[in-house]
Amino acid sequence: MGTQAAPAASEIAAVGVIGAGQMGSGIAQLAAAAGCGVFLLDSDPAALSRAVASISSSLGRLVSKGQLSQAACDDSVKRIKCVSDVQELRGVDLVIEAIVESEDVKKKLFVELDRITKPSAILASNTSSISITRLASATSRPSQVIGMHFFNPPPIMKLVEIIRGADTSEEVFSQVKSFSERIGKTVICSQDYPGFIVNRILMPMINEAFWALYTGVATKEDIDTGMKLGTNHPMGPLQLADFIGLDVCLSVLRVLHNGLGDNKYSPCPLLVQYVDAGRLGKKRGLGVYSYR
Ligand code: CAA
Ligand code: NAD
Predict the structure, then answer these.
(1) Residue 118 assigned as binding residue
(2) Is the CB of 127 inside a 6 Å radius of any atom of ligand 1?
(3) Which backbone phi and psi does 118 adopt, to 5 degrees?
(4) Are 139 and 149 in contact (CB under 8 A)?
(5) How high is the ipTM of this complex?
(6) What is the pLDDT of residue 9?
(7) For residue 123, what are the contacts with CB-CB under 8 A and spacing of at least 6?
(8) 258 carries an active-site annotation
(9) 124 annotated binding-site participant
(10) Taking the domain 9-190, which CATH number applies?
């Protein structure tokens, strides 16, 4: 295997973030705010423009609260370079992949990253559910492939769930843990099973909320208010599903259902129908609720 000593967390100076959607934009912001040079790549140029606007607005909130100086905000924005060619990532120390939640599409990207990036680079995936071991097996450096699972919105949520694949080295694990702490996160560690820790528990709740709506137990508003006021969740499960993206929720449930083989993870037909209809949630202006 073509592995080389991966860089120490303090030596991670250049980070590639692939996918400039909800998650990639927030992850790029965190890495830039920690002083790293960031190459942010997306196959859709419009996603890059939206990401730059969302990063500026997110950092702007911190400036207006007095938590960040205007100069530090400007420096962070300047450290992010939007790119459209994966070749630009050849010199980075760490890649964090945050593209669509599809094993086939992610595997193709990992094959390309393995070919392009320097041998010491760490390849991390922000996947919500997909096997890190299988993504790693698409590369010649499985010891340097790891799950680095952020939560939405990344600048606010304090957690990073780290997933070791079957061959992830201890050295890479501790470097990614230190890097996550350097960008202000608390780390938990999961074995490589479908949905890891948080989504294994969260997604069945979201699915159950869809079943409650589908079978007429209550209105969407009452389901959400019930869970917000009855269990002190910041968002109701249907509102949270819209916030995450219904496509992401459905993909995760399919991974849980296929991987764990239990009908309790079978996606509710209403969730499937919404995704089929392009009602992907807040990011598209329509999901369970309308945001138009
Ligand atoms: N950047 C910077 N600051 C932000 C921000 C962003 N993107 N989004 C929110 N904020 C800040 C606001 O400025 C505000 O700060 P102050 O309290 O200091 O004023 C604070 O966060 C709260 O924001 P809002 O008042 O706008 O809204 P809110 O109180 O409703 O909070 C929320 C928004 C933080 C998203 C909250 O509703 C929440 O925690 N929701 C649940 C989120 C959650 O569960 N995420 C995990 C989903 S699962 C997942 O991510 C994994 C997966 O694989 C699917
Ligand atoms: P999103 O739809 O907001 O963004 C995905 C971006 O990836 C899009 O801009 C798309 O153009 C781009 N993309 C797709 N295929 C690409 C490719 N081959 N090369 C380059 N760019 C490509 O999705 P998201 O919500 O940011 O989720 C991204 C990843 O993060 C998924 O794996 C998801 O499961 C995971 N995740 C999502 C959340 C969440 O709450 N949404 C939380 C944690 C993890």
Answers:
(1) no
(2) no
(3) -65, 155
(4) no
(5) 0.96
(6) 60
(7) 95, 97, 110, 113, 114, 117, 139, 141, 144, 145, 146
(8) no
(9) no
(10) 3.40.50.720
Domain at 200-284: CATH code: 1.10.1040.10
- 81 by DSSP, 3-state: which? strand
- Has 149 been annotated as catalytic? yes
The span from the CA of 289 to the CA of 232, in Å, is 21
Reported as a single tens digit per residue, the pLDDT across 140-152 is 999 999 999 999 9
Mean of pLDDT values over 87-111: 98
pTM: 0.96
40: left (phi over 0), alpha (psi -120 to 50) or beta: beta
Domain ranges of the chain: 9-190, 200-284
Half-sphere exposure of 95 (CA within 13 A, CB side): 29
Closest CA to 147 of 112, 117, 177, 171: 177
Alpha carbon of 154 to ligand 1 centroid (Å):
9
Please report, to the nearest 10 degrees, the dihedral formed by the alpha carbons of residues 49, 53, 56, 62 taken in order.
-140
d(CA 148, CA 128): 9
pLDDT at 93 over 70: yes
161 is catalytic: yes
Cα 68 to Cα 30, 81, 194: the distances in Å are 13, 21, 38
> In the structure encoding, which two tokens stand for residue 264, read together?
């309790």
